[in-house]
Amino acid sequence: MTMRPKKLMVIGLDCAAPELVFDRWRDRLPNLNRLMSQGIYGPLESSMPPITVPAWACMMSGKDPGYLGVYGFRNRKDRSYDNLGMATSLAFKEDMVWDHLGRRGKKSVVLSFPPSYPVKPIVGWSTACFLTPNSQSAYTHPPELKEELEKATGPYIPDVMNFRTEDKDNLLEQIHAMAKNHFDQAEYMAKEKDWDFFMMVEMGVDRIHHGLWKYCSPSHPRFVPGNPYENSIRDFYIYSDQRIGKLLELAGPETAVLVVSDHGARDMIGGICINEWLIQEGYLKLNGPVEGLQNPSKVGIDWENTKVWAEGGYYSRIFLNVRGREPQGCVAPEDYENLRTELTEKLTALGDETGNPIGTIIYKPEDIYKQINGIAPDLLALFGDLSWRAVGTVGHGSVHTRENDTGPDDANHARDGLYIYSSPQGEVPASPHRAALYDIAPSILKLYGIASPENGAGKTLDFF
Predict the structure, then answer these.
(1) Residue span of the structural domain in which 373 resides
(2) Read out DSSP for 123-175?
(3) DSSP E strand stretches across 293-402
(4) Has residue 452 been placed in a domain?
């Protein structure tokens, strides 16, 4: 006998890679394997950019980054040159799934959802995310939940101290301790609270990918077979699967289960020093010599003679210095489109050190977003389609680098995350079904009989 789900448990694994779960290690992940066998699963196309912030907020609001006005962790607050702000929970004004549910009297448990610091009140219970400064911070709603959780599971571990480190043993200890803390909290809340909707997000997969990817990925150019960390990522997936199994036991027979990741992971071959390239091409002018690796703003930028500058990261945000828009803009408005086209053509033609194509993709924000709010980049550059990082510092002496300027990191984000959906109805697909990250919020709301939010970027999945 099948039944309609009355509740939903969402288990988020930041950066979980579909090829690892669906193929490479499926037979070692019995709980996820069972969910796949009983339900439906497939790749989940991420937001653009496919980055933790804003991807999770896009997933749970159904809105794209342009509508949300958040294009990464750091965003321009205004048209000045140096006023960048970190995207905390306060940057997001749109309703999330639990806001819609709360207005209908449904209670939610939401744990470590990025970004949720500072913590906001919801109808139910929540803990803040990896942006929480430390365990002494106010990270729960309601406030008294903090003491209750710490008595049950110990002090909160929001994140590892530094995942870009050469001390891999210490990093692994931190990642496992953090995951244990988060899953302990989740089990306690799933068991002790009377919830209608449950969601947790675990960052450990993301941290272990960035910290140890080259040790575990045979396709990475720096992979060495038989190295002491070769199975570290596999073993963490196995541990996560075991903990997911315990949560499934607490979910109950009337609860549907959705496992999701906000993006995947892939080999990071190297970095494109975007501001070095802009200097070489005559678009960016500095006021003085560069000593060591520095951010261009620390050296000093000659804004009156600078046409273009860029921010680094897993992808690059490229900005034009437009007259009448930026304080010292020198690009005539009538030249704006021609310059964007020129940059796009040159950057897509830029190869590796020997000139071999790397497959760079450049986006204009108006081509990928339904609406543009906040200060969007003029161009979004995915070097090598995310196989090369964007390096924002100058002083490298070359456009190409095989080192990361923010510390050891050998994985970039991939466009596809994953989803696995299993319902008490017990549907079994003939084949995996592709979905988009924006489809998740309206599909969850459908389960609870709530209409899709206006201005959403996705559709309702028919198997929900």
Answers:
(1) 270-408
(2) SEEEE--TT---TTS--EESTTHHHHHHHHH-S---S-S-SS-S-HHHHHHHH
(3) 308-311, 316-320, 361-363, 379-382, 388-391, 400-401
(4) no
Cα dihedral angle (354, 360, 364, 367), rounded to 10 degrees? 150
For the CA atoms of 439, 444, 449, 450, what is the dihedral angle to 10 degrees?
Answer: -60
Strands (E), 358-443: 361-363, 379-382, 388-391, 400-401, 411-414, 416-422, 435-436
CA diameter of the chain: 74
Contact between residue 8 and residue 256 where contact means Cβ atoms under 8 Å apart: yes
Cβ–Cβ contacts within 10 Å for residue 272, how many?
24
> What domain count does the chain have?
2
What is the Cα–Cα distance from 285 to 283, expressed in whole angstroms? 7
pTM of the model: 0.96
Same domain as 58, residue 193? yes
327 lies in the same domain as 430: no
Q: pLDDT tens, 279-312?
A: 999 999 999 999 889 999 999 999 999 999 999 9
Residue 135 in any domain: the answer is yes
**404-461 pLDDT tens trace:** 877 789 999 999 999 999 998 776 565 668 999 999 999 999 999 999 989 999 999 9
